[in-house]
Amino acid sequence: MMRYVIPVEPFDFVIFGATGDLARRKIFPSLFRRWKAGQIQADSRIFAIGRRRMQPDAFRTMIGDALRDFLQAEEWEEEALNEFLQLIDFVRIDVAGEDGWPDLQAKIEDNAKSVRAFYLSVGPELFGPIAKSLSIHGIALPDSRIVIEKPFGHDVVSARELNAQLSMYFDEKQIYRIDHYLGKETVQNLMALRFSNALFEPLWNAHHIDHVQITVAESIGVKGRGGYYDQAGALRDMVQNHIMQLLCLIAMEPPSRFDPDSVRDEKLKVIRSLDPIDDSQIVRGQYRGDDHTPSYQEDAGNETSKTESFVALKVGISNWRWAGVPFYLRTGKRLRAQVSEIEVHFKEPPHNIFQNAGVLKSNTLIIRLQPDEGITLNMTIKQPGQGGLRLTQVPLDMTFAEVIDGHARRMADAYERLIMDVMRGDQTLFMRGDEVEAAWMWIDPIIEAWGKNQSAPYIYDSGGSGPEASLALMHRDNRQWREIGL
Ligand code: BG6
Fold it and tell me: By CB distance 3.0 to 4.6 Å, which of 144, 176, 299, 389 could disulfide with 140?
């Protein structure tokens, strides 16, 4: 199968927080891969902004070292790396002050033709001040883009405040709020599966679907990010954004077109149709330590912390398509495996004519985001061979890497796709301001209720499936979670 790489127009990409972890781990490696793939043109420029005093050469060496650490050995190519590093310049700016902005303005002005994108890989308290300085120093133009990383606020009030600050200087069409889950290969495939096959859509509703499960499990803990995480917790860190986005893509009505506002309007309708959650529909957990691994409280450096490192919820959507279909969501740290997947669990066949052939199992459609991106449809067939008719369930497997190319290959990282979308001016895979606010409006009452009842999270063992109470959340409804790491 042919693969196309369509080069994007030359651009000026300005990264604030260029010496930070995200820039070294994700942003520069993604840019390098797109450079190597031929998608970035040679007259594009990358301006790295940092607070410390640094010569551009020293910065390029630092990025070269980071790329060596974060790229896989087979991606390495010395010549491509040296060419790529030449695109990068370093400008020192203390973003909270006035110094440095005129330098950036002078450098970027050198080539006023290219489209400009400003990537804010910094804390949210700096979004407003940076947007303002870019504007008053004449660096941001009407067609420039500003890219924002999460956390986009910690409740609806702070999210509104951030939106208000940004909108003083940038139009919504210029604002790209990143949720890196939307850049994952399978997430887009989920939309392709639903809206380019006639097969699924007629079944995609409460008449045929029993329930949906979304699991985002991680085996790592919060060590090294305890300061941020302890203030956030799993609900804010993963559910308000990534998991709600997945839920929206599963549950939304078909948009009339695949364009940014058509897709985002439909996602917003889902968020606005979510039922409020009460205490019986949610389970919080926190991992304990053992002989080999520290507890959450040790990792977070807070020995009385009640922050949840695990959360499971049962969610209802009040609309014609989904009334009565529960969506079970869960995410947690230090679980058995790193797995992100969605299970769409169809209803049982209405009548079993094979009384002696075994129990009829429901069809399930598994959409795997990671690892091994792919989609599996579990079907019931006759067990092959002699000896009477017995039923068995087999997977119809679509592992993207194999099916599409005939051999395994690296999937593009979400950041590669999203950064190129910024350059192309395509906001489809980015969250709109009203979407983010609506998501907080649904999350806020849950957190408020926790604050009021002062309940503590259940403690769960590292390396398992989370607290027993989360299993009970499903058992109560005669259902069960798909096993983590199956
Ligand atoms: C981030 C969260 O947004 O997503 C992290 O802040 C989490 O806590 C990460 O580990 C998970 O992303 P991925 O792509 O590794 O599943």
Answer: 144
Determine the number of helices (DSSP H) and then strands (DSSP E) in the chain: 16, 15
Write the single-letter amino acid at 403: V
CA distances from 259 to 242, 267, 415, 421, 428 (A): 20, 12, 20, 12, 6
Q: Is the CB of 363 under 6 A from ligand 1?
A: no
The answer, as to whether pTM is greater than 0.85, is yes
Can you tell me the distance from the alpha carbon of 47 to that of 104, in angstroms, rounded to the nearest whole number? 8
Distance from the alpha carbon of residue 471 to the mean position of ligand 1, in angstroms:
23
pLDDT digits (tens, 9 = 90+) for 386-422: 878 889 999 999 877 644 444 455 667 899 999 999 9
Q: How far, in Å, CA of 145 to CA of 175, rounded? A: 6
Which residue is closest in CA terms to ligand 1's atom 2? 237
377 CA from centroid of ligand 1 (Å): 27
Distance separating alpha carbons of residues 220 and 3, to the nearest angstrom: 34
Query: What is the secondary structure of 363-414 as a DSSP string?
Result: -EEEEEEESS-EEEEEEEEEPSSSSS--EEEEEEEEEHHHHHHSS--PPPPH
Instruction: For ligand 1, say whether the CB of 237 is within 6 Å of any of its atoms.
Output: yes
Question: What is the atom index within ligand 1 of the atom nearest the CA of 220?
Answer: 10
Q: Hey, which of 185, 214, 242, 330 would you mutate to test ligand 1's pocket, going by the most ligand atoms within 8 Å of its Cβ? A: 242
Q: Give the ligand 1 atom nearest the CA of 369.
A: 16
H helices of 71-184, in order, are: 78-85, 101-109, 127-136, 156-167
Q: Is 218 in the pocket of ligand 1 (CB under 6 A)?
A: yes
Q: Is 373 in the pocket of ligand 1 (CB under 6 A)?
A: no
Q: For 27-71, how does the pLDDT look when each residue is reduced to its tens digit (9 = 90+)? A: 999 999 999 999 999 999 999 999 989 999 999 999 999 999 888
Of residues 2, 10, 195, the one with CA closest to residue 115: 10
Return the active site residues: 242
In the reported structure, the alpha carbon of residue 364 is separated from the centroid of ligand 1 by a whole-number distance in angstroms of: 26
State pLDDT tens for residues 147-159.
999 899 999 999 9
What is the phi/psi pair of residue 439, to 5°? -65, -45
Contact in structure between 22 and 126 (CB atoms under 8 Å)? no
